[in-house]
Design brief:
Elements lengths: L15 H20 L3 E2 L5 E3 H8 L4 H6 L1 E4 L5 E4 L4 H11 L7 E10 L11 E10 L4 H17 L6 E6 L6 H14 L6 H9 L10 H8 L4 H4 L2 H16 L5 E2 L10 E9 L8 E11 L6 E10 H11 L11 E6 L1 H16 L4 E3 L6 H10 L4 E6 H6 L1 E6 L4 E6 L3 H20 L1
Parallel strand pairs: 1-5, 7-8, 12-13, 12-14
Antiparallel strand pairs: 2-4, 3-4, 5-6, 6-11, 7-9, 9-10, 10-11, 14-15, 15-16
Helix pairs in contact: 1-5, 5-10
The chain binds one RNA strand through helix 3, strand 6, strand 10, strand 11 and helix 11.
RNA sequence: GUGGCUGUAGCUCAGUCGGUUAGAGCGCCUGGUUGUGGCCCAGGAGGUCGGGGGUUCGAAUCCCCUCAGCCACCCCA
């Protein structure tokens, strides 16, 4: 579409019909997370680049080739946030976390990564995430997962698969990496080109390779859980026990490693089939993050949900979202004087809280009625010069095709009764 | 960043051995006798066929380039 202006690649306009669903998803997140004592934080979409480089990991793909980084007027290197956790940690630490204190926060907003767009993958995408920061216990990991699953339940998403694994602690890493490197080094000829490269850059990712040949080699690889320190193994065992306790079905996936360096101990992913290659609705885990400028490591646990993906999943499941942006009445005018009077009437009714639509172009009665029908107005309020002279207005119930005249003074009460009746009907239908 | 597919009215698309003023359905607008919707009927508006270049007497249709979208790789939410 050559000359048309459009959003840049991987960014989308979202119109009212779709926004209704976004609002619902956001509202449910706020409600559910509130049940667990989480409060919303809003941090800038831009941060100093170091904030992300340091915490996500210099060697990760996200930092190396997916960040939108630019220089601002002062020559500072800034980056559009590629994920939410790093900025939240920066904000919390800046604000001071009392020792031993636990902070529970969540965020909702856009993230930016310069990847090639595909199904369920945008360059500007949106995440809902939660972080429980300041304490270290497998129980918080699992409570977080339970909250996440409760959220999915609340928005009608089922048939998900919970995959969990442990990455051990930072101290465990070198030993595991060396063991993996030694193993894959012995199978150099059997793994794909990408994985030979990963052998140098990030051995962990080989475990994640989708290539079938690599899969066979990976199957024979030493399991990470066997290489963990006794302490880490115990941590993971307790996490699994708590999943059992809360009756959350899960699968331990030894190949699940995640792409961000700050993870340690418990990591997990919620997979959903049927929405294309990007089948991960949410991911998260426990992390240890070092914030630039502060010499303390922040421990926390949390997850991020991809909004575009849960919307795809809901559509795949056929979950409907009520539009919720309808009107209470459509005001029909016949004649110049009635039109002017109706403009004032619309103003007054709106002031009283009624959602009113009316024609402002002087179209014919038929056209106005058609529009009322198209907008699914429950009632049409019809007033011409005739009614105007008698201080009356016709109130027509469009679904029942019945109409009666009411006085202008009685109109608000009458309208309210139709609204109440509709509300009661809708509530009844849901049972 | 690499590949595959696609790009014709607001939307979904038809239309290729190149040939008169480019089509359908839906949507939109106006009517079907005075001021009343949903169904039906009749009219109407709306497109430089993504853009540029080339071949040709002539191109939406063939060739090249370009832009955009989707999907996959990759990566992750």
């Amino acid at each position: 579409m050559g000359k048309k202006t459009e959003p840049i690649p991987g960014a989308s306009d979202i119109f009212p019909a779709e926004v209704a669903e976004w609002l619902l998803l956001e509202a449910e997140a706020r409600r559910v997370f509130g049940l667990y004592g989480y409060g919303e934080v809003r941090t800038p979409v831009m941060e100093r680049t170091a904030v992300f480089e340091r915490s996500i990991g210099e060697q990760t793909d996200v930092v190396q080739k997916e960040m939108y980084t630019f220089e601002d007027r002062g020559g500072r290197s800034l980056t559009l946030r590629p994920e939410g956790t790093a900025g939240i940690m920066r904000a919390l630490v800046d604000n001071g976390i009392p020792q031993g204190d636990e902070k529970r926060v969540y965020y909702i907003g856009p993230m930016f990564r310069g990847e090639r767009p595909a199904a369920g993958r945008k360059r500007q995408f949106h995440q809902i995430g939660a972080e429980c920061v300041g304490t270290v216990a497998p129980e918080t990991d699992i409570e977080t997962i339970e909250m996440l699953m409760r959220y999915f339940d609340a928005i009608g998403i089922r048939n998900t698969r919970l995959l969990v694994n442990s990455r051990g602690t930072v101290a465990d890493r070198p030993k595991i990496a060396d063991t993996l490197a030694a193993y894959f080094g012995d199978h150099l000829d059997d793994i794909c080109e990408d994985c030979r490269r990963r052998l140098e850059s990030n051995v962990w990712r080989i475990l994640d390779c989708k290539n079938e040949a690599c899969g066979n080699i990976v199957t024979g690889a030493p399991a990470i859980t066997d290489l963990l320190s006794a302490e880490s193994r115990d941590f993971f065992q307790r996490a699994c026990d708590r999943l059992d306790l809360l009756e959350l079905p899960y699968t331990v996936d030894p190949r699940l490693v995640r792409g961000l360096d700050y993870y340690e101990h418990t990591v997990y992913e919620i997979a959903f089939d049927g929405i294309g290659a990007q089948n991960s609705l949410a991911g998260g885990g426990r992390y240890a993050i070092e914030v630039p400028g502060h010499n303390q490591v922040v421990h926390g646990t949390g997850f991020a949900i991809g909004m575009e993906r849960i919307i795809l999943a809901r559509h795949e499941l056929g979950v409907a979202t009520a539009a919720g942006n309808g009107i209470d009445a459509y005001l029909v005018s016949i004649g110049e004087e009635a039109f002017a009077a109706n403009m004032k009437l619309a103003r007054d009714l709106r002031r009283q809280g009624f959602r009113i639509a009316m024609d402002l172009q002087g179209r014919g009665t038929k056209a106005q009625m058609r529009t009322a029908n198209k907008l699914e107005a429950p009632v049409a309020l019809i007033r011409g010069d005739d009614e105007l002279g008698r201080d009356m207005i016709v109130c027509k119930n469009l679904s029942a095709s019945e109409q009666l005249e009411v006085t202008i003074a009685d109109l608000p009460a009458h309208l309210q009764s139709t609204v109440d009746a509709r509300f009661a009907g809708a509530a009844h239908a849901e049972e």
